[in-house]
Write a structure and sequence with these properties.
This protein has 437 residues and is mostly beta strands. Among the domains are: 6-100, Roll (Ubiquitin-like (UB roll)), CATH 3.10.20; 317-437, no CATH class. 9% of the residues lie in helices and 53% in strands. The strands form 3 sheets. The chain has a 16-stranded antiparallel beta sheet with strand order 4-5-6-7-8-9-10-11-12-13-14-17-18-19-20-21. Strands 1-3-2 form a 3-stranded mixed beta sheet, covered by helices on one side. Strands 15-16 form a two-stranded antiparallel sheet. It starts with 5 loop residues before the first helix and ends with a strand.
Length: 437
């Protein structure tokens, strides 16, 4: 029997509000007899069913239908997902109707590194997000502009459907400007030239939980080299990496969740004696999305990481100011070996994500449905980084608070227009542009 985390049971309380109530609903003919999926011309039906909490014999509620709709949309395979339950028919049918995205296309790439409008990158490549209709992803992309790169990647979330195994492989090359402000303050600006090869294998334990392992080979070269940029004295580190992950993700809409929870735990060992790189990192990311009064959502997040072992090279340090940020100190870079952070955010939907259908335009059907949403938000962030041997306390935390407007756009793109004050009451406008992960 599928195990459902307690958080999901609480969120879907109307679905499990007592045996007597459910028996009465079934007696009235409200249970699902069968589930039918339509519109999936390429995608295998079980790819969709695997994301659904509702099953035959269960009593659907409006909350449960919306939750499953968002989970299916979060697969990234469809422009439109609708669920309709016909409780009056002789065979009570839950119909899942989808409109598929284009899955295979040459692509032009444009974006902003770490969501920063000053760090424009652009490029082209090939992308297929639904190979064989099994949600397998294959890509080959190069980028120019800020931090040029080349990458080839393949992932298969259903390597073995019966055993619920998934796998992936990747190859990448990138020339990135060093993120270490401490190193560049001493030596000037320099680039880190990275080549990485990795393979991964995992198992989906339940509908929400998974465990996985990733084995990789990394080569990092400093250009130009100065002592301290790498652990090896010749300016080039080559080392093996083994990472173990545990994930429990019950969020509804992954690009902008309004309910559910997210737990990611990881342990990564870098180097096994083949080089001077030899340390371990342990990390955790815990998020909970609590549905509050008046249709609002309260997000609480705590995250952090710690290292043990040998010297951590600058390119493997922890940072705020890049992918992780403290609003109020949005462009300030904090750097260290250890990291801790927390966020409290109130999301107030102006309108929940909905579909806009451009039926009168002469464009392919895959582009006629756009899903958009908007929300106001109030937030508070705090966090710090530090090196081993340094004591850290509450006085070392950098904090900020503010509010703004969040726009949820088609193809999992989120735009945040916000204003924040830090703990010295210095204000700053924030334009954050990024695709959901």
């Amino acid at each position: 029997m599928m195990r459902i985390p307690a958080a999901v049971l609480l969120l879907l309380a109307p679905l499990a509000s007592g045996a007597a109530m459910q028996a009465d609903s079934v007696a009235r003919g409200a249970a699902i007899d069968t589930i039918v999926v339509t519109g999936n011309t390429s995608t295998k039906t079980y790819v969709i069913l695997d994301e659904m909490l509702l099953q035959e014999g269960m009593v659907p509620t409006a909350e449960a239908l919306e939750y499953d709709r968002n989970r299916i949309y979060s697969l990234g395979l469809f422009t439109r997902v609708e669920l309709h339950f016909d409780s009056l028919a002789q065979v009570r049918t839950l119909t899942v109707s989808v409109t598929e995205r284009w899955h295979w296309f040459p692509t032009f790439v444009v974006g902003f590194r770490d969501g920063d409008p000053k760090k424009l990158y652009y490029g082209a490549g090939f992308y297929h997000n639904n190979v064989a209709g099994r949600a397998q992803k294959l890509s080959a992309i190069f980028t120019l502009g800020y931090d040029p790169s080349v990458s080839v990647a393949y992932s298969n979330p259903l390597l073995d459907h019966e055993r619920r195994l998934f796998a992936g492989v990747g190859l990448g090359y990138a020339r990135t400007r060093s993120r270490s402000v401490l190193e560049m303050a001493q030596s000037g600006e320099y680039d880190e030239v990275r080549t990485e090869i990795s393979v991964s294998l995992g198992k989906r334990l339940t509908q929400f939980e998974s465990v996985s392992a990733r084995l990789g080979l990394s080569m990092v070269r400093a250009d130009p080299y100065m002592p301290g940029h790498t652990n090896e004295t010749d300016g080039k580190d080559e080392f093996l990496t083994l990472a173990l992950y545990y994930l429990n993700d019950t969020r509804d809409l992954r690009e902008y969740p309004l309910q559910g929870s997210y737990t990611e735990l990881s342990a990564t060992k870098m180097g096994f004696g083949e080089s001077d790189v030899n340390f371990a990192r342990f990390a955790a990311d815990l998020r909970y999305y609590l549905q509050a009064p008046l249709g609002t959502t309260l997000l609480g997040r705590v995250f952090g990481g710690a290292v043990a072992g040998g010297t951590v090279p600058p390119y493997s340090r922890s940072f705020f100011g890049y992918s992780e940020r403290i609003r109020g100190y949005f462009t300030d870079v904090l750097e260290g070996e250890h990291q801790v952070g927390a966020t409290l955010e109130l999301r107030i939907p102006l309108f929940r994500p909905r579909y806009v259908h451009f039926s009168l335009l002469d464009i392919p059907e895959e582009f006629t449905y756009w899903r958009i949403g908007a929300a106001l938000c109030l937030f508070g962030d705090t966090g710090t980084t530090w090196f081993r041997g340094h004591n850290v306390g509450l006085a070392d935390l950098s904090s900020g608070f503010g509010g703004g407007l969040d726009l949820v756009l088609p193809y999992s793109f989120v735009v945040r227009l916000q204003y924040a004050w830090n703990d010295t009451l210095r204000g700053q406008f924030i334009l954050d542009l990024r695709w959901a992960a």
